[in-house]
Amino acid sequence: MTSFQAAAGETPPPDAVHPRDSSPQTPTSVSRLGETVRDFVQRWGAVWVEGEITAWNKRGGHVFGRLKDATGDASISFRLWSSTLQRLPDDLAVGDRVIACVKGDYYVKSGEFSYTVSAMRHTGLGDQLERLERLRATLRAEGLFDPARKRPLPFLPHVIGLITGERSDAEKDVHRNAELRWPEVRFRTIHAAVQGDRCVPETLAALAALDADPEVDVIVIARGGGDPQTLLGFSDERLLRAVAAASTPVVSAIGHENDHPLLDDVADVRASTPTDAAKRVVPDVSEQRALVQQLRSRARTRLTQRVAHDIAQLEQLRSRPVLRDPESMLSARAQEVWTLLSRGRDQSRRRMDAATRATAELRASLRALSPGATLARGYAIAHIGDGVILRDAAQAPAGAPVVVTVARGSFAARSEGEVAESATPAAVDEASARPL
Q1: Where in the chain is the domain with CATH 2.40.50.140?
Q2: The domain over range 3-125 is classified in CATH as 2.40.50.140
Q3: What residue ranges in 235-361 does DSSP mark as E strands?
Q4: pTM, whole model, 2 decimals?
Q5: Can you list the positions of beta strands (E) in 149-215?
Q6: What number is the average pLDDT over the span 71-93?
């Protein structure tokens, strides 16, 4: 209280009284008390604490849970905001032993005390998780996680190779669910340790044996759930590279939905549980039968529709006049064909007659111009021995041999020299022109 208030005998308001100065005469307020506690808690800073998760409830993307001490004598509640949850491992669950970085929070309005988690990881797995993350980055860089290299599962495998623990629930789940879906399914099961030091070598030997079997079409590696420590064998680099190099498709069915060993990323198919693996490797016979019936029904419907459509088209074509009475088209064109045929005959005959007359005229002209016709009228052709035709009597001096060609044949003669003028061609023409 101030000196003025003390001198005046006034009582200060509760908000003005610090909790350590409170008394029955000068009490503090609830809000002042809450603010004092909040300020005190905030001065603590962050604390690393170890415990077991006993509650893990998701609401609105956030997690509200509780951590219990190893002795079981104490527990705390915590809040984990969604932004922080995205940075944490996906496999955190009730029952896990963890170490968490927490910071106290006191809410003045409700008077509640809680802790906000800024980091959390499994106890004792810090170094191992770091190594696994480095291995994950290496394998991803090498392309072992690439979806393009994943091999598709066969539609209906002849034999399913199964690697699992002996007399395990995982083996029973895979067999039971696969046989429910396809009763004739066949398995070749090889038991191997699914945790501990024997896990990796026995799983590698089983994988090599099944991969070498030509009857095995797909290999399932199955195990029930467990804490991350027991699942470390399925993140071993030797096993991961063997699975990537296998020629047979491999299905990883390790643990439950939240379990995520590196085998899930390298395998060709990741199944959330062994039961899910059985559903992935064999089809459901009832679904396939229903699909076959559906396809048959669709094929029958389509075929019926196609036949009905073709029949309707055929009837439509048959109803056309040209197909209903095909001879009518021929009858209508018969007279036209006969007319064209007659016209063609007449034109051919006229052209033949004209060509015959022209040929006769040409033949007569050729005969009139032919040397044979001239020779037939009594004329002759005389030429000397070298084939020169005589056109002048001077060309054949007396005693020269002459060949004379008449209408029928040739004969040899000898020139007696040039004769009198009365025997010249002009005299001959004049004599032949005289009347007898």
Answers
A1: 3-125
A2: yes
A3: 250-254, 269-270
A4: 0.46
A5: 159-164, 187-191
A6: 85
